[in-house]
Amino acid sequence: MPHRVVVVGGGFGGLNAVRALRRARDVRVTLIDRHNYHLFQPLLYQVATAALSPANIASPLRHVLRRQRNVDVVLGNVVDLDPVARTVQLEDRTLVPYDSLVLAAGTVNNYFGHDAEWSAVAPGLKSVEEAVAIRQRLLLAFERAECEEDPVVRKAWLTFVIVGAGPTGVEMSGAIAEIARDVLRREYRHFDPASARILLVEGLERVLPTYDEESSFHARKQLERLGVEIITGRLLSEVAPDHVIVDGGEKEPTRIECRNVIWGAGVKGHPLANVVAERYQAELDRMRRVVVDESCAVPGYPNVFVIGDLACYRDEQWSTELPLPGVAQVALQQGRYVGREIRKRLEVESRGRVYTPPTFRYKDHGSMAVIGRGRAVAEVGSVHFYGFAAWVAWLFVHVLWLVGFGNRVVVLFQWASSYLTLNRSARIITGEPDLSLTPVRSRHDKLAPGDPHANPDVNHSLLGEDAAEELAPPPPTKPVEAADATESERRVETREPAAASSHSGDVPS
Ligand SMILES: Cc1cc2nc3c(=O)[nH]c(=O)nc-3n(C[C@H](O)[C@H](O)[C@H](O)COP(=O)(O)OP(=O)(O)OC[C@H]3O[C@@H](n4cnc5c(N)ncnc54)[C@H](O)[C@@H]3O)c2cc1C
User: Fold this and answer.
1) Which of 50, 82, 285, 287 lies in disulfide reach of 427, CB 3.0 to 4.6 Å?
2) Cα 61 to Cα 296: distance, rounded to the nearest angstrom
3) Is the CB of 125 within 6 Å of ligand 1?
4) pTM of the full predicted structure?
5) Which residues lie below 8 Å from residue 465, measured CB to CB, with a gap of 6+?
6) Who contacts 450 (Cβ-Cβ below 8 Å, separation ≥6)?
7) Max alpha carbon distance in the chain (Å)?
8) How far apart are CA 238 and CA 145, in angstroms?
9) Does residue 326's CB lie within 6 angstroms of at least one atom of ligand 1?
10) Relative to the CA of 309, which ligand 1 atom is closest?
11) How far is CA 413 from the centre of its chain?
12) Ligand 1 in reach of 329 Cβ (< 6 A)
């Protein structure tokens, strides 16, 4: 019987482990992922800011692996593991047996103990669904601002708070600033999109805290030039649908009225890490990642590997203090290493010899963060550069990394087009936007329930049965007289549905 390798997760780690096994003899690989695609997460923010469509940054796993005959791709959600029976259990109770297991399920957003309250209000950027939800909210905010007459409420719609000034936060805030300043220019009649306020809030003392101080300084300068307001050294103590409270140090807490909060402040290990801890008595670090040994295996289980963002790996040659960072290069190199080592072990053991794997060593090829059109910072070894040159390097590397030739061509074309025209091609509000969010004090007159001007003869059935149901008049509520409503009454009217509608169900559990 062939050696059965089960790989959980078709991200950078899992996919590269599978590919490294393509020439392995007498091996059968099963790749299990809860999505049918490999997602290129570093470009998720481009989906969230309408520069690219989801299909541009995702490739179907079956297509990617179509030429690798020793792989089966299974669409399934792994929920449990059994070290004794050596099986992986899927949500639908299917059991998949393994001889070697590679776990590469990545991370989930970390709201530091506020997951339940904050995740619905402040979506993170970990999945296609979240990126599309953020794009939806972003575009809807400008639509709301266009209809809103009350300058205070309009300002709240036009205030965007991005939490966390790591690469994701920096990229998001730079892109939103560009949308407001350049992309939407001249498109609205009742306000200037450039008046949008973009705030980037970071708990540590500087932006891009994992980069060196000079890169951090340049990133800050470039963001400020785009009009982004940067608040460092302060944390959020409250995140609500219509405001956030920025706490901090000796300063007074600041309340900021806003309708759009984007979470980029941190991640933690996928809940599968808890299963590994429980079933294999593995240790988790404080980010709930599985602590692995020098061959990326769970201590005591040389055939069970945890790689990529889900793993906490200490490479003393890289840093004596920190485990390896959660970046694509680490996942990719660990995936290749583990695939190669499984193959070598089988070859050596088939000759009746004992195999001792070499220690995994990470090769740091550098870091880059893009800030906007023609703006980026890059650190490659001891060479650090900023601005246009860094941006070109960023483009080049990201296009090369993308999985699928077709995606590379399309993305290059989209980037060239938006660079030249300042437009963003994916500015479509998809799904059914909840238009009940339209502010009460709209510049357009609205019919109150029972208004004598309402046309009693509107024939909803002309729009089809579904529409007739949807458009049926709501049950009578206490009418709010727009002119007399207090500010807080108006807020309640506009804010309650905001949290419920635009994001419920978007954050994966
Ligand atoms: C917005 C953003 C920007 C980033 N930018 C950069 C960057 O510029 N440079 C860089 O180097 N890194 C960047 N990263 C980090 C990089 O994307 C990750 O380090 C990398 O994706 C980790 O790879 P992985 O294989 O460990 O996990 P992932 O790529 O997250 O893949 C995990 C896979 O596991 C699957 N999965 C999860 N749970 C289950 C389950 N229970 N059952 C089955 N399948 C499951 C998922 O569907 C997914 O396909 C960024 C990340 C984000 C979110």
Assistant:
1) 50
2) 24
3) yes
4) 0.86
5) none
6) 476
7) 91
8) 24
9) yes
10) 26
11) 23
12) yes
As to burial, measured by CB atoms within 10 angstroms (0-12 exposed, 13-18 middle, 19+ buried), residue 268 is: buried
DSSP letter at 21 equals T
Residues of the chain with pLDDT under 50: 437-440, 467-468, 470-509
> Tell me, what DSSP letter sits at residue 209?
T
pLDDT single digits (tens) 226-261: 999 999 999 999 999 999 999 876 778 999 999 999
pLDDT the model gives residue 320: 85
101, 83 in Cβ contact below 8 A? Answer: no
The per-residue pLDDT for 352 is: 95
9 lines ligand 1 (CB under 6 A): yes
**CATH code of the region 115-265+366-509:** 3.50.50.100
Å from CA of 169 to ligand 1 middle: 17
**Confidence (pLDDT) at 477:** 39
Give the Å distance between the CA of 23 and the centre of ligand 1.
25
Write down the residue that tokens 């905001």 correspond to: 498
Any idea where the domains of the chain sit in the sequence?
3-34+76-110+268-350, 115-265+366-509
Question: How many alpha carbons fall within 13 Å on the CB side of residue 479?
Answer: 9
- Give SS3 for 266: coil
pLDDT at residue number 496: 31
Q: Which residues contact 54 (CB under 8 A, 6 or more apart)?
A: 47, 128, 131, 132
Q: From ligand 1's centre to the CA of 58, what distance in Å? A: 12
104 ligand 1 Cβ < 6 A = yes
N residues, the chain: 509
Ligand 1 near 124 CB (within 6 A): no
Q: In CATH terms, are 3-34+76-110+268-350 and 115-265+366-509 the same topology?
A: yes
Neighbour tally for 352: CB within 10 Å: 6
* Interval 43-69: pLDDT, tens: 999 999 988 999 999 999 999 999 999
Q: How far is the CA of 85 from the centre of ligand 1 (A)?
A: 28
pLDDT for 462 equals 57
Nearest CA residue ID for atom 6, ligand 1: 42
Q: Which helix (H) or strand (E) holds 158?
A: none
The predicted structure's pLDDT at residue 412 = 83
pLDDT of residue 500: 32
Residue positions annotated with a catalytic role: 171
Which residue among 18, 327, 507 is best mutated to probe the pocket of ligand 1, counting the most ligand atoms within 8 A of its Cβ? 327
Q: Which CATH class is domain 3-34+76-110+268-350?
A: alpha beta
